[in-house]
């Protein structure tokens, strides 16, 4: 019985590899078709979050500015992506230059 | 004649097409290059441009293009006998669809993965692009109207399928949540989903739901059409992961299982083709085979819709350019196989010739109902499944496909309305809800306008849908041909199919124009004229674009 459960049994390894492969294909097939649509929806949500974090700079009062201020450096790279995506070569904010 | 012989002949010819003709086209005409950096690598962003394994991409491509159309078209066209439909499906797949689909991927990959619409603007001209937009809108309009009529007919005729068809949507909603919240692994969810779907199919015959013939002054058929559009409108507005993604996935699994069951049953039973090879005794009012066969079977032989998928999402995910042959050509073969199964079910699935004749009493009759009944007869005799269960299985397969196409089509139509809102600066039209309402409204107008208040006559527009779909294919072939001329490569392999399609389309439109005029159906007469104008514009655009690009190449040679 014990060698049946040997984790290095080549037969078990092969089955495991095969299952892993099947799982990979199933997940790829599940996600391929709508990958773009879902990533775009997620990006929209992220943009909204970024708007909240940077709201003070655009003149919108933010009751939790004390906390979101800390997040600004973390969002630096995403902010850079965002303004490039929106067709602006450089940061549109006066006090927040990323490039 | 034995169905197995026809099956082997058809599959053998398609296999030869893949190994010989497709190789020639890929190596000599498109000259696919394994070292070419595809847009998936060049612009890789994890959103749209993602290099994808070719088997996965084929699965995506095939399940996106396969719908109810390759079932409905051939099942209507066998009214002229099985031979014309068989030849057009097999030869169309080999020489038309495969070349067209592979070519659309190639053209798009060589042009930054742009869509055929954008390519028409770049390669052929601005004018052609406007025609393209109109043709696309007409195709979507007709596909939604026709499929609503098809599903409504199925729901009325096969009441045992009502519970499984709507239950499948519930299954998809649950699967979507299980996967989204990572409650179960995907292989586990797939197995559970398939079991749940087939359990529903199993219990379907014992809980039939029959819509009364008349509800509040409307026919049962019309009520189903309204319910279906209500569903499609909601489905097209939901986030994709909630319903569309899990449902397409479960549909894809179901498609493969359904095809295996049907082909397996044909092999085990070896039914005889009861329908004649050529039907000399067609019911009165059946239009002539030439040219109508070539627009009745669009999907399954050549379909412009494939070009939209090929150049839309497939080309952005192609890992190597040489994969285009496998994904595009073999995708077309998958569709051809579905059409072949539909032909066999609708011609061999009857006990006697008289039974078959009773099904095909008029042009447009039979169709998907013949596929379901014939297929159920074969499955019952081949693998012993009760006939009611087998009929439910095939109805669910056809209805789910048509449903998927409907809400995708409605979503695309909504985008077009929103784009028009953008172009003509109409704020209200840019919003999702009003744009969806406009899309649904235009489809309902067509579904009821074509066939009267009960909506049952909507299938009259099937050939008209075919012509529009072929026009779209013609525009894609034009883009490919112009590209080939500019590269100084042989253009006959795409030009001959292009000319053939245009001639058949215009001839079919003229014949239908006469019959609509004789019937006094002014609504369809106007629609026919609109499509005819688009067809003539496409033909003239072809002539001028080819003349221009030939002149350019000759000039550059001098």
From TrEMBL, chain A:
It holds the Pfam family DUF7990. It comes from the Bacteria. InterPro entries: CC_star_Cory, DUF7990. This is Cory-CC-star protein. It comes from Halomonas salifodinae.
UniProtKB/TrEMBL annotation, chain B:
It comes from the Bacteria. InterPro entries: CstA, CstA_N. The chain crosses the membrane at residues 85-109, 130-152, 158-176, 183-203, 223-244, 256-278, 290-309, 329-354, 390-412, 433-453, 459-485, 492-511, 523-540. Keywords: Cell membrane, Membrane, Transmembrane, Transmembrane helix. Residues 3-347, 364-508 form the CstA N-terminal domain. It holds the Pfam family CstA. Belongs to the peptide transporter carbon starvation (CstA) (TC 2.A.114) family. This is Carbon starvation protein A. It comes from Halomonas salifodinae. The lineage of its organism: Bacteria, Pseudomonadati, Pseudomonadota, Gammaproteobacteria, Oceanospirillales.
């Amino acid at each position: 019985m014990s060698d049946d459960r040997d984790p290095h049994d080549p037969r078990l390894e092969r089955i495991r590899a095969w299952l892993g492969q099947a799982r990979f294909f199933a997940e790829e097939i599940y996600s391929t078709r709508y990958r773009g649509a879902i990533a775009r929806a997620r990006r929209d949500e992220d943009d909204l979050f970024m708007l909240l974090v940077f709201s003070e700079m655009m003149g919108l009062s933010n009751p939790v500015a004390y906390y979101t201020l800390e997040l600004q450096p973390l969002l630096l790279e995403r902010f850079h992506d965002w303004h490039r995506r929106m067709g602006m070569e450089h940061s549109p904010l006066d006090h927040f230059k990323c490039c | 004649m034995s169905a197995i012989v026809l099956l082997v002949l058809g599959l053998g010819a398609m296999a030869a097409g893949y190994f010989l003709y497709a190789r020639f086209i890929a190596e000599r005409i498109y000259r696919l290059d394994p070292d070419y950096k595809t847009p998936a690598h060049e612009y890789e962003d994890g959103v749209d441009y993602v290099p994808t394994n070719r088997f996965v991409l084929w699965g995506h491509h095939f399940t996106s293009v396969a719908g109810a159309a390759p079932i409905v078209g051939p099942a209507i066209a066998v009214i002229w006998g099985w031979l014309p439909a068989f030849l057009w499906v097999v030869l169309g797949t080999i020489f038309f669809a495969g070349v067209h689909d592979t070519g659309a991927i190639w053209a798009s990959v060589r042009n930054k993965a742009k869509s055929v619409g954008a390519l028409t603007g770049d390669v052929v001209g601005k004018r052609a692009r406007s025609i393209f937009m109109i043709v696309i809108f007409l195709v979507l309009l007709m596909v939604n109207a026709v499929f609503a009529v098809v599903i409504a007919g199925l729901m009325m005729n096969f009441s045992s399928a009502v519970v499984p068809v709507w239950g499948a949507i519930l299954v998809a909603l649950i699967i979507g949540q299980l996967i989204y919240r990572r409650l179960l692994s995907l292989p586990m969810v797939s197995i559970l989903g398939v079991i749940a779907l087939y359990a529903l199919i199993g219990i379907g015959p014992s809980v039939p739901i029959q819509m009364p013939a008349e509800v509040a002054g409307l026919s049962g058929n019309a009520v189903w059409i309204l319910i279906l559009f209500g569903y499609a409108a909601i489905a097209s507005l939901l986030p994709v992961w909630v319903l569309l993604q899990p449902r397409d996935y479960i549909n894809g699994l179901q498609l493969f299982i359904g095809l295996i069951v049907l082909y397996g049953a044909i092999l085990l039973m070896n039914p005889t083709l009861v329908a004649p090879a050529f039907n000399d005794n067609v019911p009165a009012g059946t239009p002539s085979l030439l040219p109508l066969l070539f627009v009745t079977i669009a999907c399954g032989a050549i379909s412009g819709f494939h070009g939209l998928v090929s150049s839309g999402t497939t080309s952005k995910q192609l890992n190597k350019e040489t994969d285009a042959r496998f994904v595009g050509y073999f995708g077309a073969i998958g569709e051809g196989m579905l059409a072949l199964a539909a032909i066999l079910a609708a011609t061999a699935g009857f006990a006697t010739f008289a039974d078959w004749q009773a099904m095909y009493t008029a042009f447009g009759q039979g169709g998907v109902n013949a596929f379901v009944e014939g297929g159920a007869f074969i499955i019952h005799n081949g693998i012993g499944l009760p006939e009611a269960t087998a009929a439910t299985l095939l109805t669910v397969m056809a209805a789910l496909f048509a449903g998927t196409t409907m809400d995708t089509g409605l979503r695309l139509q909504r985008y077009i309305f929103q784009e028009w809102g953008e172009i003509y600066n109409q704020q209200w039209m840019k919003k999702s809800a009003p744009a969806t309402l406009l899309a649904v409204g235009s489809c309902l107008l067509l579904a009821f306008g074509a066939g009267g208040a009960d909506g049952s006559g909507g299938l009259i527009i099937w050939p008209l849908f075919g012509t529009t779909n072929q026009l779209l294919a013609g525009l894609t072939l034009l883009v490919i041909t112009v590209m080939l001329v500019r590269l100084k490569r042989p253009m006959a392999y795409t030009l001959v199919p292009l000319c053939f399609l245009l001639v058949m389309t215009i001839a079919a439109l003229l014949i239908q124009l006469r019959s609509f005029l004789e019937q006094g159906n002014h609504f369809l007469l106007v629609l026919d004229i609109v499509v005819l104008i688009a067809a003539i514009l496409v033909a003239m655009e072809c002539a001028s674009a080819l003349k221009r690009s030939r002149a350019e190449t000759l000039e550059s040679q001098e």
